[in-house]
Structures are given as structure tokens and as C-alpha cells.
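Q: Here's a chain of 72 amino acids. Please give me its 3D structure as C-alpha cells.
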Amino acid sequence: MSALQSFLERLRRDPRLQIRVHEATTAAEVSLIAQELGYSVSGSELLMACGKSFRGIRLLRIEHPGEYPHRY
């Protein structure tokens, strides 16, 4: 299991972690949360996994004005 999958598994089971991740505004912030917990997850890895699902968790990317669409 990859570090990203392990992090998502923990996220699926931990309501407090879910709140922290929902409050994050960028993939970099989410990756820092994962790294604080010992998971080697990068922001770009999160962005490249957008649109995929893992055991009930779907990774979505929020498009912000001024960004290049479909960059990842």
C-alpha cells in the first residue's frame, strides 16, 4: 500500500483528520498534514490523484480563478 493510500485509509477512519483536511485550501496544505502524521505524500501526488476514489474517499480538486485548467 502506498503512503497516499495509507493516509487516505487513516483519513477515512478519523473524523478529526477529515475536518483538518476539509479546512485546508491547497494540496500542499493537505500534504503537510499527511507528512506531520508520518506519511510521505506530496501536493503534486494529491493533484495527480484527483478524480480517483479509494475505499469511499474521492479526491477532488477545486478550480481557483486564474489557474490553468487541467494543469494536472
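Q: Can you summarize the key feature?
A: Residues 3-58 form one domain.
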